[in-house]
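Pair request: fold both.
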Amino acid sequence: MYRVKLTQADCYLASEVGIRRRISSQYRGSRNRAGSEETDTVAKQWFNHIIGAQGELAFCRCFGIDWPALVDRPDEPDAYPDWEVRTSQVANVSLLCYPDDHKERRYVLVTADCRGFVPVFTIHGWQWGYEILSRPAEAWNDRRPDKVHRIPTAELFTEFNVAAPFAGYIL
């Protein structure tokens, strides 16, 4: 498990990408996968995009990976070569995958502690898409019948087959 704090410039960059993603999804009429359009406030929907982009950048900074910061490229991974980053503000959460996610990619669970002035990101671990998607899907929650695949944090791989963690961002 790694804890990461982004620089002010990183927070600004990732926030800008999150804002662009939210605007793009609104114009495309995309459905919000990270929560519920019916129950999340508009501010929460914007925040989900921003904190998601920051979580991606925190993962990349931790391992010295160039962050592509893509907007409108849903078929591309969040980080190359095959990383998909799932960021949550809930500390005790499972890694979620959706039935249409890519089986050949690695999914990373990152949580954001937003209680302080600057979020602190925790990189918990990862699992292959084909392993996650082989599990039975279940309802997201009582308000939302969408099916998701859940992997508890304790079952994630904690060894990352990437460069050594970059000490400049690790807490």
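--- second member of the pair ---
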Amino acid sequence: MASPHRDLATASLTALILFGVAAGRALADEAETIRQLEQQLADAVVKGDLATFDRLLAKDFTHGSQSGRFRSKSEWMQGKQQGESAYVSFDSADVHVRVSGDTAVVTGLSKPQWREGDRIASGQFRFLRVWAKRDGRWQAIAFQSTEVPTPSNAPTPEQALDMDDPPATRD
């Protein structure tokens, strides 16, 4: 005959395992939701879909560009016209989503192509976007991108060290 303590311990362990599996599944579901929202944003960039930007970017959204420019949502949206975009594609790779409670952090590599006069230009940018779940829905609250140098504009190893370790941070 099994002891009541062993039965209680077994039941408790089973409950913890099931809770852990359910929690892991919930995080995976949230990460998939964020991936879908990231794709919706990429599609909106190409289509010039202002309604999607307005829905997915929080009122307090901030945008830090690869050139160091920092803008609020309204500043970033200024001048954009519904249905108009210079972008012909906006692909991403190496995308990682980390969810922690009501916050998600997305990192990846964007590979956009855009019209520049009569030619198509392209680039690669490492990005970080922060999402917050507010009132039951996810919205982007911050974005930062950094241009990935191409072989023609890549820094020398010494320049790269200076960029990663500016003089003010050295001993």
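Observation on the second member. The radius of gyration is 22 Å.
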